[in-house]
Amino acid sequence: MLLSFENLGPWRIALGIITTLVTAFLVCPLVLIVMLSFDSSPWLVFPPPHWTLRWYRELFTDPDWLGSFMVSLEVGLTVTVLSVLLGLITAIGISRTRTAWRPACETAFLMPMILPVVVTAIALYAFFLRIHLNGTFCGFVIAHLILALPFSVGAILNGLAHIDPAIENAAVLCGSSRTYAIMRITLPSLRPALFSAAIFSFLASWDEVVVAIFMASPSLQTVPVRIWGNLQQDLSPVIAAVSTVLIVLSGLFIFGANFMKSEKK
């Protein structure tokens, strides 16, 4: 390749230095949080005077934190399933629309990704108050689904753009029904896109905090909401331990997605 790394000559050193600095800039805050989670001080002190696992023991024995993890997991999995199903139907409908309304439809479904999250949160809060969905599991799922659906629709639309519709049409011409052709030809070809949609939908729900603050109740809080509440009360290293667990879990999801993509190639 003309612009491969080996052909850059002296620019390879500059590129390597810039890449290292940018990587350090992104990774250093995460490393700092991980180190603080082993801090023996009851406050967030850096560098840690001593190392301890005390905060992880408190985290995994605290029913409030464990309950928040379960709420985040249940909401995230529910949102993922609904987001992929609705995103698939929506993406197929948009991709096969040949009218002048297609760009408007794509923009409408991607709008929650473009708008400031706090605007969406306030609108949902005002509306859910009127229909009594605030502080309920259903309200959490609907609110997070609105934020996750654009990622799902975008990923599946991108996957559909790389599938030749002539193959599905050929199956229909050979006697197959349109539904059977979609199930046996289109969907198997969309597996990488569906997997990406699932990963991004889950992470969009798992990490979301702004909308979750408006949706939460004293008995129903996700992990990010509980972190925010504890930050307002004290700066216990338990928060760093929780953040480290979230970093590890999010990293496992991303590395798992990349591994599966490489295996399919």
Topology:
Layout: H1 11-36, H2 54-61, H3 63-95, H4 102-114, H5 117-131, H6 137-161, H7 165-173, H8 178-189, H9 191-206, H10 210-215, H11 223-233, H12 238-264
Helix pairs in contact: 1-12, 2-12, 3-6, 3-9, 4-6, 6-9, 7-8, 9-12
Textual characterization of the structure:
The structure is a single chain. The model has no long low-confidence stretch (mean pLDDT 81). It contains twelve helices and no strands. The two termini are 20 Å apart. It has 265 residues and is mostly helical. Helix 2 packs across helix 12 (238-264) and helix 7 packs antiparallel against helix 8.
Question: Any descriptors?
Answer:
12 helices, single chain, globular, mainly alpha, 265 residues
Largest sheet: none
Q: How large is the radius of gyration?
A: 23 Å
Query: For the terminal residues, how far apart are their CA atoms?
Result: 20 Å
Number of strands: 0
Give the uncertain stretches in residue-range form: none
Mean pLDDT: 81
User: What sequence of helices (H) and strands (E) makes up the elements?
Assistant: HHHHHHHHHHHH
Q: How many DSSP helices? A: 12
Tell the overall outline: globular
Task: Please identify the structural class as seen in this structure.
Answer: mainly alpha
Helix content, binned percent: over 70%
What fraction strand? under 5%
